[in-house]
Every structure is written in C-alpha cells, then in structure tokens.
Specification:
Elements: H1 8-12, H2 17-21, H3 26-36, H4 41-48, H5 67-79, E1 85-86, H6 99-106, H7 109-112, H8 124-141, E2 145-146, H9 153-167, E3 174-178, H10 183-193, E4 200-203, H11 211-214, E5 218-225, H12 236-244, E6 248-253, H13 264-267, E7 271-275, E8 291-295, E9 307-312, E10 318-323, H14 329-332, H15 345-383, E11 387-388, E12 396-400, H16 405-414, E13 417-418, E14 420-423, E15 426-430, H17 437-446, H18 453-459, H19 486-498, H20 520-523, H21 529-532, H22 544-561, E16 565-567, H23 573-590, E17 598-602, H24 607-615, E18 619-623, H25 633-643, E19 647-653, H26 665-674, E20 678-682, E21 702-704, E22 725-727, H27 764-797, E23 816-819, H28 821-827, H29 831-840, E24 847-848, E25 855-858, H30 866-887, H31 905-908, H32 918-922, H33 942-947
Parallel strand pairs: 1-13, 3-4, 3-5, 5-6, 6-7, 17-18, 17-19, 19-20
Antiparallel strand pairs: 2-8, 7-8, 9-10, 11-12, 12-15, 14-15, 16-22, 21-22, 23-25, 24-25
C-alpha cells in the first residue's frame, strides 16, 4: 500500500510566517466570529468598514516569503553595505557595546517589548534604568535635572530653543547659534524655528556675540562643546555676555568628553543637550539614539519630554514613576511648546547601563584613551608638515591641506577609513573608543606622513586646556560601582527585567498603541554590524544595501497607504506629524496662500496633533465631537465656513480616536478640499486599515505612520519609534531633506526634522522584514483579525460594561472603549482601581481615560491568541463582580481589593488586617500561584512625587547600613 503523502509544494509552504504572527488559528477565529455573529473574516470586515473607503484592489506587494528566505535577503542587503572604520565624527562615533548589554537589553524582549511606564507599579525595572540614565546626564553635565531621553541631539537642541523662549526674560530678539555647532543641528533648528517665528543667527562666537547681533536682542545662545571642528574653547566669557543680555545659554556637549572636561553647569550654562550614542549604542546609519537634555532646577517643570521621579508607595517604600507625565500635550495641547511623545527609552537604558558597567573610572579611561589617540594623530601630522588647525581638542582633529582635502579623504577610504571632507582645504578626523594603532597609521599614510606611534607617545602632551580640566567627582552612587563583573551586571539586568511587565509575560491591551508581536526574525538583523556599524554620513556608495532597503520600504509603505511618496526621516510619530504639517504649510505658501494658517482638529484628538500644528506655525481651531464619537459634521461645516480662505488643513484620526470607522470621512475630506484646505489623517490607527482601505485614496493628502505600532518596531519601554510621513504627489516637493545627504529628500524640501538623513535607519530592517514576511494577503488578514479581536472583546464585555462607541452595524474597528464612569458614580470604584486590580490578575491595564475620562480603551491586536483574549475578558468580568461586592456593601468602598491593588508579595507576608483574604487579594479567579507576576511595589503616590521632585538616583546616605 502507498501511504498518503503531501506534495512538495504543500510541504514547502506548511507554516507561513503569517501563522506565527497572527495569534488565533482558523478554529479560534471561527469561535470568535460566532461570538460576534459573522461567518467569516470577509463578512465581518465588509460589515464594519464603510463601502466608501474600501479598496477594491489587492495590495501590490511581493509575495510573502519564509523567515529563512527573508533573513537571506537581508543578509544580501547587508553585504552590499561597506563598513569602513568611522572617523567622520559630527556627533556619531564608533562604540563597543558590551555583549552583556547587547544580549540582555537590546536583544531581550523583556526590555524591547515593554510599553511606556504609565503604569509605574509594573515598570519599576525600566524606571530605575532610566533614573540611572538621568543621573549620568545630570552629573556629567553639572545640571541637576535631566529628562528620560529625547529623540536625538539636533531635535534636543531645537527643543532647547523653544524652552529658552518660554522660560527666558527676553521674549523677542534672535536666537544665536555658534558657527562651530554640528551642521545637522543648525539645519534642524532652522527647520523648526522659522514656522515658530524665531529668527536664528549663525555667528562665530570665539570673540563673543557680535555687537550688531547683541543690539537686536538675544533670547538664547547655543554653543557646541567641543565644537564640530574639534576645538575645545573656554565658553565662560560668551556665556557671561549672553547672561548680561538676558539670554538663556544652551551647551551641546559630548558626554564622553565631560568625564575629563569641566561640566556645562560649572561653566554657567542653563541647559545642556546632546546625544548618548557613544555610550554603547550602535550608529545604525543614524539612529535610534537617545538624545538628552539637562536643565537648571528652575526649569524642571518646563522640561520637554519625560521625567522619571522618585516617589513612594502606600507603604512608604521608595518607588519610581514618570513625574509630571501629562504636563505637555494632553494638558497644554495647543499651548504646548513641544510635541514630544515618544522617547528613546531602549537606547537610554543601554547608555545608562554602559555607564553602570564601566563606572566613572572606566568611562574616564575610555575618554583618556580616545583623547590620547587624537593627540598622537595630531602630533604625527604636525611632524609630517601638516597644519593642525586647533591646539586644544578632545577627540577630533581638523587638518589643513591646501587643495588636497578630497585626495586625502579618498586615500584614507582606500585604506579602510572614512574621514570628513570639510571643504577643499580641510579634513576632519575623529577618534573614538574603537580607534586603534592601525587606523592612525592608515590616516598618516593618507596624508603622506610616516610616524612612529610609540616615539610620539613619549614626546606628546595631551591637548586638553588645563583651565577646563574637570576636578569634581561624578557618578558616586553605588549603582555605578557595584557591577564590574559580567556576572554582577547580568544579574542586575535580570533583576530589573523581573520587576517589569512586557509582552514576553502577557497581553498589553492598550488602545491606540498596538502592542503586537515584534518577531525575532524581524529583530535579528538590527544588531548585524553591516547595519549597526555604518556612519550616517558615510559615502552613499558604501550604503547601497541600506539605501535599497530604504527605497523598497518607502515604496511598499506608499503602496499600502495609497500615497505617492514616503519619507522615512521622522524618528517619531510626533516628528512625522510636524513634517506633514510643514509640508502642507510649504505647499500653501508656494501657491501664494500665505494666509492659510488654520488647522482644524477634533476635540478627541491626541494631544500631539495640536502641539504639532502650533509648532508648524498654525492656529488651532477645535471641532466638536458628536455623542457617537464621530466628528460633528455640522460644527465642521460651520468652522470651514467661518475660516474660509484661512483654512490650511484638517487633522483627523481614522479610524477615529474612539475606535470606530466613521461613515462620513469621504464627505469630510471633500468639504475641506472644496474650501481649499488639505486633509491630514493621523496614522495611529492604521492597523485597522492595511489591506482594507488606503487613506491616500479615500481623501487624505498626508499621513504619518507609526512603524512602532502597525509595522512591528517594538515600543522598547516608550521608544524607539519611527514616524514616516506619506504624501500625495502635490506635497512631495515639500518633504524633509538633509544638508549632508542630498538624496535624502527633495531640493525644495522643508529642511531636516531629524539629525540623520534617514532618521532611525538602524531599525528599519524590522518593518521591511514584516512587510516582506506577510505579503499582501497576510497584511490584510492581520488587519481583519485585529478587527475581529476588538469586536470579540466588545461582545464578551458588553453585558458587564457599556461599550461606549460603535460604528456601522454596531461594530468597532481595531479597539473598543468600555465605560467605567457609571460604576464609579454608583460605587466609588475608580478607573485607577480597575487598572491597578488588573495587575493582580496578571495584566497591564488598557489605555486609561483617553480619549474619554473614566474609560478604558482596549486594543488586543492580531497577535494575541484566543486563550489570552479569554483570560483578559475573564479577568475584566471577575473585576466587575468584585465591583458588585463593593456596591452591595460587602466590601467597604475605601478598603477592598480594588482600592488596595496591586498587592505585593511583601504585603502578604505581614500581619493581615484587610476585610478580604490573602487569596482574594493575590490569587483571584484564574490566577495560578506558579505563574503569578508580583509587582515589586504597591500603589504609588503620584501627587507626592510631583510635589517632591527627585529625578536622579537617591542620595548615597540612603544605602548606609
């Protein structure tokens, strides 16, 4: 007899990646569809998605490939990159990532799949790691308050401009930038300054602020320390002059140099900004890297971005939380001076851990070695007759070679080293942690110089100015002295990871945040040196693999969204918003419609929308939201008529912020277009559209996309993110460009919005791989299952909690909002109580009180299987039963498992005086003791932390005894 057998074709395609990415299998999907009342995914989405927006054609993407095939393709692309030794500098440096940090942070899903620590009780590990980062920045810069990372150095400098204007006494005047600042920083500031009505002046400040500039009034000054040219100058005189003019002074400082040089704070600076990239974070062709900002105490409550603070829990135990966490976008909205939403948490954690591992002595040793190589390099050049421009420098030497600069740079390239071609007569050479003797020899040969490094070493003095040498101690806290061995470091990282809740533990059902699978196959190429070790300003012929990947990803994102062109430069969703709005502004101005400055925004919009509009020089006008959650069409028409010729753009989220497919979106777009405006569709909810509808085809002119949501780049504890902007053809000439890489954008573009030409290029292989693995059909099914999951949860929870908004046929999109307000009114059980009680059940809470106060917005994503969806639903149903016990009087409203949640292991070990049992507290229905997640602290007192702002490691004295 012949046994039954499968064909080779069947065996070759037995387990497509799609089945790994999508949680519910066919049988589970059938059960879920039955609960929702539909026979198939196609029937469900046909009923949920309005006909007027549906795509009629399939996505024009290459067929899906297996994980092995995609990794092989990526290997081929990586091999087309040529990684030469990077001595270009300009804020990007070679660094050695300690393998214990590479493996246990960057490659560890316990760190990279976590969400922003808005639920601090289950985020204590990464909050401590960020507190370490803040401490490193604060102590090295000599300024007491540091944030928990910004996006990169140039955007941090641009944030400093806005901060200076906001907190300074001089409200008019100009902003002065030293000519020796990084060119990309100057360009980003200019992009951001012009629409904000800020005039910038770039001047040589070696001899102070020129009189003709000073007499115009100066509200702020930016200095680079050391300069882009490498020069180390004493800035105290110009800082004093600036202060006499009433200006706020920002110093953009290299963190590694600050282990040897006097800190900006001690020099008199008000603000310090920069990058932590060279603290163990790969260059990645430009990012992601954690920018930093530190300020005087008096500016702490105006600091943009996130600030980790020290508070206490209900037992008085020390606990960490995000301090002042909603002060900018969600409270200030159109009055915000920053649209920062994402941070670079994962990279800030790496940089902080680099400092923990090396400690102050190790960091200073790396700095001394780096400087020593620069000093010997310069000495060899001088001995060979080459003019070295500066006598004082840290790691970068500028050499003058009349008319020979290009020849020298080309010769160095032939020897495997990239140098900076400054102009026809000057070459910049930067040393770093990875520089060695071989590189110095190669550079000398490129200049036509022969030198004996050992002989030079005995005869060459250091080149740091004596008056600027650092004399104070820094990083004295025990955490920077306890983890020298790899064993100790490994255990520290594990201890912190165990205090957190990330996707490797369970579902994170956050609405508007799309916490989906970040597949290992997608993540793996990020750490390959061909992608990680490439300098962003390397010659383009050395980055052909990267540029091919970037071009293909841009084309595929354009295809799935219906736009004509995509720019990948914005390194966060907020920056994509700004880039898109600046493109709209530039388009109107090019058409002579300079009066068009009104941005219509629904009242339910994410706070960054309003902040981005103001930063783009627009005036925000709020449009009402109807009782059904849709944009109030009547109010929209009234606002269009009211503002007429001044209308620039409507910003709208689709599906709506309330999680429904609005049926009148095409009419809304048409009304705006008829009035001469443009339509911006916020791409936050694109996970409900891929393969079903294309914003660029149903009326939108521009969108930003969140690659850290829909396209699988992980949230990393609150960042990295990538926020590409897609536009229709008429807006394409106004996309971002870059002064150091002409091919990064159109010549007519708005300027750069990020420091690197292609933003956070180092993580783009993740999204490229996701699209390649899924193909057209896979992306469509992922969307359909995301919609199915949200409707399944809505149907299961509807008998217990009101579902606040629904769209066509009573269905939601990819998320649903349940209303806790009636229960709060009846019982006193708050939305916080429900969120914290979910921790006891082993869950991260859904999004709280956005877009409606007192509600939970739930987004399951397509990656959660039915067992996990049911576990969540059963936990919510059990919590509803617990609320009923409060309502009945069985439990006191002020003393019950919800009000006292979460419950810690330490709490259970003490005398028990609660009116419910230990088992009810820690092991509610469905929670197994063997799988229990224990929060390290109990409920944290947020108000205490905001009143008593502590944002660096607690004093050493607390560790005595």
């Amino acid at each position: 007899m012949t046994a039954n057998r499968n064909s080779l074709a069947e065996l070759e395609s037995a387990v497509p990646f799609e089945r790994r990415h999508i949680g519910p299998d066919a049988a589970d999907q059938a059960k879920m569809l039955a609960q929702v009342g539909y026979g198939s995914l196609d029937e469900l989405t046909a009923a949920a998605v309005p006909d007027v927006i549906k795509s009629t054609e399939s996505l024009g993407l290459p067929d899906a490939r297996s994980e092995a095939e995609v990794l092989a393709e990526l290997r081929g692309l990586a091999q087309r990159n040529q990684v030469l030794h990077p001595m270009i500098g300009l804020g990007y440096h070679g660094t050695f990532t300690p393998p214990v940090i590479l493996r246990n942070v960057l490659e560890n899903p316990a760190w990279y799949t976590a969400y922003t620590p808005y639920q601090p009780e289950i985020s204590q590990g990464r909050l401590e790691a960020l507190l370490n980062f803040q401490t490193v920045v604060a102590e090295l810069t000599g300024l007491p308050t540091s944030g928990a990372s910004l996006l990169d150095e140039p955007t941090a400098a641009a944030e400093a401009v806005a901060l200076s204007r906001r907190v300074g006494k001089v409200k008019q005047g100009v902003y002065v930038i030293d000519a020796d600042c990084l060119p990309q920083t100057i360009a980003v500031i200019r992009t951001r300054a012009e629409p904000a009505g800020v005039e910038t002046v770039v001047a040589d400040l070696r001899d102070g602020i020129p009189a003709e500039v000073a007499e115009r009034g100066v509200f702020g000054v930016l200095l680079q320390y050391p300069g882009a040219s490498g020069a180390v100058r004493d800035p105290r005189a110009v800082i004093e002059q600036a202060h006499e003019l009433g200006a706020i002074v920002t110093v953009a400082a290299d963190l590694l140099s600050l282990t040897l040089l006097t800190s900006p704070g001690d020099l008199g600076a008000d603000i310090a900004v920069g990058s932590s990239q060279r603290f163990g974070v790969p260059m990645g062709f430009g990012g992601p890297h954690a920018g930093y900002m530190a300020v005087q105490d008096t500016f702490a409550r105006s600091l943009p971005g996130r600030l980790v603070g020290v508070s206490k829990d209900v037992d008085g135990n020390q606990a960490y939380r995000l301090a002042l966490q909603t002060r900018e976008q969600h409270i200030r909205r159109e009055k915000a001076t920053s649209n920062i939403c994402t941070a670079q948490v994962l990279l800030a954690v790496m940089a902080g851990m680099y400092a923990v591992y090396h400690g102050p002595d190790g960091l200073a040793g790396i700095a001394r070695r780096t400087h020593r190589y620069a000093a010997l390099l310069a000495a060899g050049l001088r001995d060979g007759g080459v003019d070295v421009v500066h006598g004082a420098y840290f790691d970068t030497v500028t050499a003058r070679v009349e008319g020979r600069a290009a020849q020298v740079v080309a010769a160095a390239r032939e020897a495997g080293v990239n140098l900076r071609l400054t102009d026809a007569d000057h070459v910049g050479i930067s040393c770093d942690e990875t520089t060695g003797r071989a590189q110095l020899a190669a550079v000398w040969r490129a200049f036509g110089v022969e030198a004996d490094i050992d002989a030079l070493d005995g005869a060459t003095a250091d080149a740091l100015p004596a008056e600027l040498l650092r004399t104070d101690d820094y990083l004295t806290h025990p955490v920077f002295h306890q983890h020298r061995s790899e064993t100790a470091m490994l255990r520290y990282l594990r201890k912190l990871a165990d205090r957190d809740y990330a996707l490797d533990r369970g579902m994170i059902p956050l609405g508007s945040c799309t916490m989906k699978l970040n597949a290992t196959t997608e993540m793996e190429p990020v750490t390959w040196p061909e992608f990680g070790a490439l300098h962003p300003f390397a010659p383009e012929d050395q980055a052909q693999g990267y540029l091919t990947l970037i071009r293909e990803l841009e084309e595929r994102l354009a295809e799935v969204t219906g736009y004509d062109t995509v720019s990948l430069q914005p390194n966060a969703g907020s920056q994509g918003e700004l880039a898109g709005l600046l493109a709209v502004r530039a388009y109107h101005r090019a058409n002579g419609d300079t009066q068009r400055d009104v941005c219509l925004i629904p009242s339910s919009a994410h706070g960054t929308n309003a902040a981005s509009a103001v930063m783009a020089g627009m005036r925000v006008v709020i449009v009402k939201t109807g009782d059904d959650g849709d944009v109030d069409a009547e109010d929209l028409r009234a606002k269009i008529e009211q503002h007429g010729e001044r209308l620039a753009v409507l910003m709208v989220t689709y599906p709506s912020t309330h999680g429904v497919f609005e049926e009148h979106i095409t009419e809304i777009c048409a009304a705006v277009h008829d009035a001469g405006g443009q339509v911006y569709v916020d791409g936050a909810n694109l996970n409900a559209l891929l393969g079903l509808a294309k914003p660029g085809r149903f009326g939108a002119d521009v969108s930003h996309l969140n690659l850290h949501k829909t396209f699988c780049i992980p949230h990393g504890g609150g960042g990295p993110g990538v926020g590409p902007v897609g536009v229709r053809a008429h807006l394409a000439p106004y996309l971002p460009n870059h002064p150091l890489q002409p091919s990064a954008g159109p010549e007519t573009g708005i300027g750069p919005v990020s420091g690197a030409p292609w933003g956070s290029a180092g993580i783009l292989p993740i999204s490229w791989a996701y699209v390649r693995l899924m193909g057209s059909a896979g992306l469509r099914r992922a969307t359909q299952v995301a919609v199915l999951g949200a409707n399944y949860i809505a149907k299961r929870l509807e008998p217990h909690y009101p579902v606040l908004y629904t769209g066509p046929n009573g269905l939601v999109a990819h998320e649903c909002i349940i209303d806790v307000r009636p229960l709060t009114k009846a019982t006193g059980v708050s939305i916080d109580d429900v969120a914290k009680r979910l921790i006891d059940y082993g869950f991260h809470a859904p999004t709280m009180s956005f877009p409606v106060a007192g509600t939970l917005m739930i987004e399951p994503t397509e990656s959660e299987d039915l067992a996990e969806l049911d576990r969540f639903c059963e936990a919510m149903i059990a919590i509803r039963a617990e609320i009923e016990r409060v309502a009945s009087g069985e439990w006191d409203v002020a003393d019950n498992p919800l009000r006292n949640a979460p419950h810690s292991a330490a709490q259970l070990g003490r005398e028990w005086d609660f009116p419910y049992s230990r088992e009810e507290a820690a092991f509610p229905a469905g929670v197994e003791a063997s799988d229990k997640y224990w929060p390290p602290v109990r409920r944290i007192d947020g108000a205490y932390g905001d009143r008593n702002l502590v944002c660096s490691c607690p004093p050493v004295e607390e560790y005595e005894g």
